[in-house]
Structures are given as C-alpha cells and as structure tokens.
Design brief:
The complex is a heterodimer of chains A (439) and B (275). Helices cover 46% and strands 14% of the residues of chain A. Chain A contains 19 helices and ten strands. In chain A, strands 1, 2, 3, 4, 5, 6, 7, 8, 9 and 10 form a ten-stranded mixed β-sheet that branches. In chain A, helix 3 links the parallel strand 1 and strand 2. Chain B has 275 residues and is mainly alpha-helical.
Chain lengths: 439, 275
C-alpha cells in the first residue's frame, strides 16, 4: 500500500531549485577555469526527422568539437521526433533539469519566448567574430529565427523548403520534355493531365495534406502573393480573398481537373507513391532528396515549385535554441558548440548527410559541397529557391493556431466546408486565441 | 433430432468463419510487418514472393543503434519491474483484502483513483521525483514511478477476496502465521492472476516509449523502443522496410517467449477455472 509522496518531493524539489538558482556565476570566467580534467558539462537534445544513420554523424561532429575544445564535455541526446523532443525539453525544464541547448522546430520560437524558456543569442555572444556569425545565415532562414525587434533566438541547423520532384521516365512516356518541370500553375495542370492520360501513373501530382497541411498550403498562398502571418507572431490573415483563392486552386486539382487524389493525401506515404510510380509529381521537403535518390528506380528531377502570381515556398525545419535555466557558462559553452556545428565545413557535412539545406552561403563554397553539387545538381535547387522563400507560419500559442488552420484546411479538402467558410471560421478562431497577445 | 442438429451446424460454421475472419484481421498487420521487413525497399509493397528477399534491412537497422545494449536494458527493466510490482501489489492487496484497519477504504479509493489517471499527465511530476532521487538516466529511474501498480493491487485484492474463508481458517488452526497463510493459501490460488498480470505488465513496459525517452539520456539506460522510432522519419515519410525491420527486432523476442510458453499460460488459466 504505497501512495507516491509526490507533493513532498515537489516541495523538496522546489527548495532545491531555489538554492540552485541563488548561486550566481560569471559565464566567461567559469569557462576559462574549466579544463580537460574538470570540463563544463552541457547537454544537447536533438531530434531525427529524416532517414539514415544520422546518430553516427552527430556523434562524429560532437567528438570533433570536444577534441578541439577539451574544456567542454557535450552529452548529445537523441530525443525522438520534433514533438517528442519538445515534450522532453518541456518536462526537463519543468522538472528542474533543463538541457542547455536543443534543436527544436524553428516555429516554436514565439511560444518558447512566451514561456520564458529561451535566451537570445545576442545576450550570449561575447566578441565581434561571434556577432558576425549571427549574420552569416541566409535571410530566409533568419525570418523564423529573429523576432521583429531583430533579436536572434534561434540558429538555423536542419532547415528545408518545399520543392517539386518529377518522374522523368513518365514524362518521356507521355511525350513531354523530361527535363522541363511545370513552371506555372496552368502548366502544372496541363502537364499533370497529359502524364496521367498517357501513362500508367494513377495521379498527375500529389500535394500532401496530412499532419501539417498548413505548410504545403503556405507554399500555395505565397505563390498567390499573400502573407498569412505577421512578423511578430501575433496576427494571422487567413480570410483574405487571395488565401481563399489559393485553397480553391488546391481543391480544383482534384475536383475540376482530376489530376490529384481527392480527400486527405498522407504526408508519410507520398514519397513512397512517387517511388512506386503511382504519381508523376510530388511536392515535398528537400529533406527527401537522399531518400528519393537512393530508392528511385527511374530518372527523376527536382525543381522549384511553380509560380502562381510569383514563386514561393515557406522554409521549415529545426533551429538551435539556448535555454534560460542554464548557467551563463553553460550557455556560452553551448553557443560555441552551435557555432562550431554551423561553420561552413560542418554545415556542409550535415547538409550532405541529411538532405537539409546548408543554412549559410559559405557552406556552399566548401570543396565537399561543390563536389556534391556537381555530382547531384538537384541538391542546389532548394538553396536557389531561398530567394523566393518566406517565413513559415509561426505564432504565439502555436499549437492552437496550427490546429485551427489544419482543421480548416482538412475540412475544406474533405468537403465539409467551402474554402471561404473554412478560412473565415479559422480566422475567427485564431483571432480569439491571439487576442491576448495583441496589445 | 435432425432439426435440432442442423441449425447448430450452420451457426457453428458461421461462428468459425467469423473467428477466422477476426483472426485474420488481427494478424494481418503482423504478417505484413514480417513480410516487408525481409523485402528490398523497391518491392516492399508488392506481393510477388519469388524475388526481392533480403536480410539487409535487419542488418542495417541492427547496426544503426546499440540494440544489444537496448535489449539488455529492456529485459532488465521488464523483469525487475514486474517482480517489484507483484511483491508490492500482493502485500498491499493482502492487507486491503483481509485486514481491518482504520482508513482502509479511503486508501483503496486512492488506489482506484490512480487507475483513472492518464500516465502522461504525471510526466513532469515523475520526472521531478526521479531526478530528485538521483535516478535520472538509470533503469530503476524508468521503473520507479510504476513500482506501485494500482492495477496489480486491484486485481490481486479481488482475487484474494474470492479465496474461501474456510481455507484460511484451516491454515490458521494449523498455526500458520499471516505471511505463511499468504504464501501457502492465497498465492497458489492466485497463480493464474499473477501470471496474467505479469504478462500485461511485461508487454506494456516492453512497448513503453515516451517516459523512458524523457527520463533517459544515454544508450546505457535506454530501452529497445527508443532504438526504432527514428525510422518513422516523420519529415521524409515512412521508411517502410526499416521500420518493419525494426519492429521485427523489437517484437520477436516477446513473441517467441509467448509462443514457447503459451501452453503453460493457457493451462494456468484453465486450472484456475476448475478451482
């Protein structure tokens, strides 16, 4: 007969926390005192969201860092997917044993700021070199890493955009130019129709709508030249006519043109459908490059998404964050680790191993990356598309806003609501949630 | 005679047919997992049995994480935990079922309450408890929040309540102490329940994922489930062959154990029915 003495323990824990919090330290000097025999210990959580033996790559990078910086001991903890990593981090922070740094979705930024969980990198960098490092990344990625006041809360690490993949063999069979992917929405419809009629492919194109339909949808809204979120994460613009139009175009692919499956298209099986020749084109993350290259039994191409009014795609993927509960010395040590991991050589290595877009221009000038791109030019498409990329939907109360928009999109896709109703409804709900964040 | 025997025969056939159908529906995913795990990625979803067989998936998955260590941890965790739960649960249930003491019913109500709490809600509290005990990132740390199982206490108490008073009184007349009565009278009668609970506990903790992931950090203490989730690769889509190969690696030992001992399990259930 044992009942867990949780409340007593909680009280003890609170007391212990309080005592720990009272000890203050000066980051720089504590780090200077650290030696190989008595190192500063930091914990880093990281999710793995793409295939491949990536834990080895991470371990290799961390070992290299520790060899160069013996005064810092890094424990790198694989922590499941992004959601599970977020749960782990949240639990560890609430439980009083936060990691020093973690890779989380870049879009968690406003929520993490709101929860006072993270510190901006501007407060942790100590010299001009490090300050310059904060400016060394592609602007498109920084759009989800800086707030509207210019403070840097996240460092881009495993970032992506949406690109189109097409099956060159099927294009050829349909009498199309196999090296020409659709460049406009109209061309997308035409090509999809032709390839579907002339070949054994069941579908012309698949744009997945499960899990995170808002992300794919944002590609369409961007192409229709409309922003759906404000820079400070407090406002969304779902009910504008151009947004509704973008949704109508998505639905028309199946309803009017019959080139896209009706109903929800599963994100997880879309690449598999493509590899099996079930669909001639797919829209999916650049993170799929390695997977498709390794498993495709046909010639395939990768290109930027077609343009509606303009070209465009949201960025996606994960950033490094620094947690507020860590001591200053730990934060500085973690910052140095993150800086090491995002140096051109390391960023190039990580990009090549994963398929993510190396987040800074210098990484693309390294010998390793140049060799990789010359053998596999498709890898550079996502980088080139960054010129047209926009900030991924990121707001306060992120989870709720995502749910609202995803539900509305799926409701329209399965035909429960018209696009206009769905978006108007989503806007009303989102305004209710975000009201408290708008001063 | 004819009329009475004909009808049952038809309904028997329907019943057997339904049983086969349900059995097939139940086993189909497992069959698919074992099928895809040994197929080359390009043909994993096709049904041609004459080509494309391979052991590469199993090999590459096995090498992608320290599975031998993970297995050791999982076995240690589930056996240690099931034993602890049974010892604590049986003693608690014995007290609740057979002794009168002040607050007994309130205590039992608390136990029942615990049954209704969704374990994930306690994630943070459990994390705090375990890290304050200094057991974070250890196997006992994974186990301790589950050590006092309300389900075990409840199950055993109901079982003990059903033990005939006469048997207990006979033991007492023979001069048996309280623990001797528990050992010699209650436990032999409760064996099927103990086995059943053990099975439920082992399979639950064998498959448990989120809590072990959150509370552990190093491969030295992580269980086998943490080893396979990476093949879900949510961002790039499901890698079917790796995921199914990983599933085969994880479930095979448990499946083999059950198949080997299933006769004993079924017998022990049947014997309990006779008594």
């Amino acid at each position: 007969m044992r009942i867990r003495p949780t409340s007593t323990v909680a009280a003890v824990a609170a007391l212990a926390l309080l005592t720990a919090a009272c000890g203050s330290d000066d980051g720089e000097s504590a780090l200077e005192e650290a030696t190989a025999d008595n190192p500063i210990e930091i914990t880093m959580y990281y999710p793995i969201a793409v295939g491949g033996p990536l834990q080895e790559v991470v371990d290799g990078l961390i070992d290299d860092f520790m060899a160069e910086n013996p005064e810092i001991a890094v424990q790198a903890v694989y922590s499941g997917n992004y959601d599970e990593t977020m749960v782990s981090v949240q639990t560890a922070v609430d439980g009083g044993d936060a990691p020093v740094t973690s890779v989380l979705l870049s879009t968690e930024m406003f929520q993490l700021i709101d929860d006072d969980m993270i510190v901006p990198f501007d407060d942790v960098v100590t010299n001009d070199d490090e300050r310059e490092w904060l400016d060394s990344f592609y602007d498109a990625f920084m759009a989800n890493s800086r707030d509207h006041e210019g403070r840097t809360w996240g460092i881009p690490f495993q970032r992506s955009t949406i690109v189109q993949y097409w099956n060159k063999d099927l294009f050829e069979e349909a009498g199309l130019d196999p090296d020409h992917a659709p460049q406009t929405w109209d061309e997308l419809v035409e090509i999809a129709q032709q390839v579907q009629q002339e070949t054994g492919a069941r579908w012309g194109v698949q744009i997945p709508s499960s899990g995170f339909p808002y992300w794919l949808f944002q590609a369409l809204t961007t192409q229709n030249d409309v922003e759906i979120v404000s820079a400070d994460g407090t406002e969304v613009y779902f009910d504008q006519p151009a947004v509704v139009e973008a949704l109508e175009f998505w639905l028309s692919l199946s309803a009017d043109h019959g080139v896209h499956p009706s109903g929800i298209v599963d994100w997880g099986t879309t690449p598999e459908d493509f590899l099996q020749g079930q669909t001639a084109m797919i829209w999916t993350t650049t993170g799929n490059l390695t997977n498709v290259r390794d498993n495709a039994t046909f010639d395939f191409g990768v290109d930027m998404l077609p343009e509606g009014v303009r070209r465009g795609s949201p960025t996606g993927g994960g950033n490094f964050f620094l947690f507020a509960d860590a001591s200053e010395a730990e934060q500085v040590a973690a910052m140095r680790l993150i800086r090491y991991l995002t140096q051109p050589e390391q960023a190039a290595e990580w990009g090549i191993a994963t398929g993510y877009v190396a987040p800074l221009p210098e990484a693309w000038e390294t010998a390793a990356m140049e060799e990789y791109v010359s053998g596999f030019p498709e890898a550079a498409v996502a980088r080139d598309q960054l010129d047209y990329a926009v900030r991924e939907l990121s707001t306060y109360a992120r989870g709720q806003i995502y749910e609202i928009l995803n539900d509305a999109l799926q409701g329209a896709i399965v035909g429960d609501m018209t696009p206009e109703e769905a978006m108007r409804h989503a806007q009303e709900q989102a305004d209710n949630v975000l009201g408290v964040y708008q001063n | 005679m004819i009329r009475t025997s004909r009808l049952p025969r038809i309904s028997d056939k329907i019943e057997v047919g339904m049983a086969w159908l349900l059995g097939f529906l139940w086993i189909a995913p497992l069959v698919y997992v074992f099928w895809a795990a040994f197929r080359e990625p390009a043909v994993a979803l096709t049904l041609n049995p004459f080509q494309g067989w391979t052991l590469d998936n199993i090999e590459s998955v096995w090498n992608s994480a320290p599975f031998d260590r993970y297995f050791q941890n999982t076995v240690l965790l589930v056996t240690g935990l099931a034993t602890t739960q049974l010892v604590l649960g049986i003693l608690a249930a014995y007290a609740l079922a057979r002794y009168n003491f002040p607050g007994r019913d309130i205590l039992f109500a608390f136990v029942l309450l615990q049954l209704m709490i969704f374990p994930e809600i306690l994630l943070t509290e459990n994390f705090r408890l375990v890290s304050n005990l200094g057991l974070q990132d250890t196997i006992p740390g994974i186990a301790i929040p589950y050590a006092a199982s309300a389900f075990c206490i409840f199950l055993m108490r109901q079982q003990f309540k059903a033990v005939p008073k006469e048997l207990v009184e006979a033991a007492e007349i023979e001069g048996a102490s309280r623990l001797e009565t528990l050992w010699k009278v209650y436990l032999p009668l409760a064996r099927p329940t103990i086995v059943a609970f053990g099975l439920v506990s082992v399979s639950f903790h064998w498959n448990n994922f989120l809590w072990p992931l959150v509370i552990t950090r190093s491969p030295e203490s992580r269980p086998v489930t943490v080893g396979i989730v990476r093949f879900l690769s949510p961002e790039t889509g499901i890698d079917f062959t790796s995921l199914t190969a990983g599933t085969v690696i994880v479930v095979t030992p448990l499946l083999a154990l059950f198949l080997l001992t299933q006769r004993q399990f079924i017998q022990s259930f049947m014997r309990s029915g006779i008594k």
